[in-house]
From TrEMBL:
Pathway: Siderophore biosynthesis. Acyltransferase required for the direct transfer of medium- to long-chain fatty acyl moieties from a carrier protein (MbtL) on to the epsilon-amino group of lysine residue in the mycobactin core. This is Lysine N-acyltransferase MbtK. Keywords: Acyltransferase, Antibiotic resistance, Transferase. Gene3D superfamilies: 3.40.630.30. GO terms for molecular function: acyltransferase activity. Residues 16-179 form the N-acetyltransferase domain. InterPro entries: Acyl_CoA_acyltransferase (IPR016181), Acyltransferase_MbtK/IucB-like (IPR019432), GNAT_dom (IPR000182).
Length: 194
């Protein structure tokens, strides 16, 4: 399977990789993850199989985002939506720059919960997004109730901006500026290209 981004994280001593979601290969996994008790409250996509498969097809066809499967040491365990803010509903909630990117994520496989993987995974995805040289800011809009994830975003270098209303949730708008991210992590020795 071709990966779009691979890195070795020295903190957890594991490879982290992201590959573009393959509908045929990944549908059942992602469907299963959306029905996990820790995912349902924040994603609300615990749909019947046929409805969910149509939802995933539509998400894949959306040109302003790319869907990824995150892997640790080659094991698929997380789902990511990396999107351009321009063309997304959130662009109307702040003064967005043309190359701002955003992230939605979930750790789907319960055996990877509570093991300290969230921050290394998020750090790797933000690093991947900053490969686009024109992107100066990555945003997130976690559910305002999701205190664990908000804490992880802050540890990664995101700052809380303001609560915003979105169609499916009250979210906390958060920004991670390239300069902040690079200052926090570039010298830390967390990464080696795998």
């Amino acid at each position: 399977m071709n990966h779009d981004f691979v890195t070795f994280d020295n903190e957890i001593e594991k490879d982290i990789s992201f590959r573009t979601l393959d509908y045929d290969k990944d549908l059942r996994n992602v469907f299963h993850w959306m029905h996990q008790p820790h995912v349902i409250p924040y994603w609300q996509l615990d749909l019947p199989f046929l409805k969910f498969s149509k939802h995933l097809e539509d998400a894949l066809a959306d040109q302003h985002q790319t869907l990824y499967i995150g892997e640790i040491d080659g094991h698929p365990m997380s789902y990511w939506e990396a999107y351009w803010v321009k063309g997304d509903i959130v662009e109307k909630r702040y003064d967005a720059d043309s190359f701002d990117q955003g992230i939605h994520l979930l750790i789907g496989d319960p055996q990877y919960l509570g093991k300290g993987y969230s921050l290394p995974l998020l750090r790797a995805m933000v690093r991947f997004q900053f490969i686009q040289p024109d992107t100066k800011k990555v945003i997130a809009e976690p559910d305002i109730r999701n205190e664990k994830m908000i804490h992880i975003f802050k540890r990664c270098g995101f700052e809380a901006i303001k609560p915003i209303e979105l169609p499916d949730k009250t979210a906390l708008l958060m920004f991670c500026h390239r300069e902040t991210f690079e200052k926090r992590w570039s010298h830390a020795g967390f990464y080696e290209e795998a």
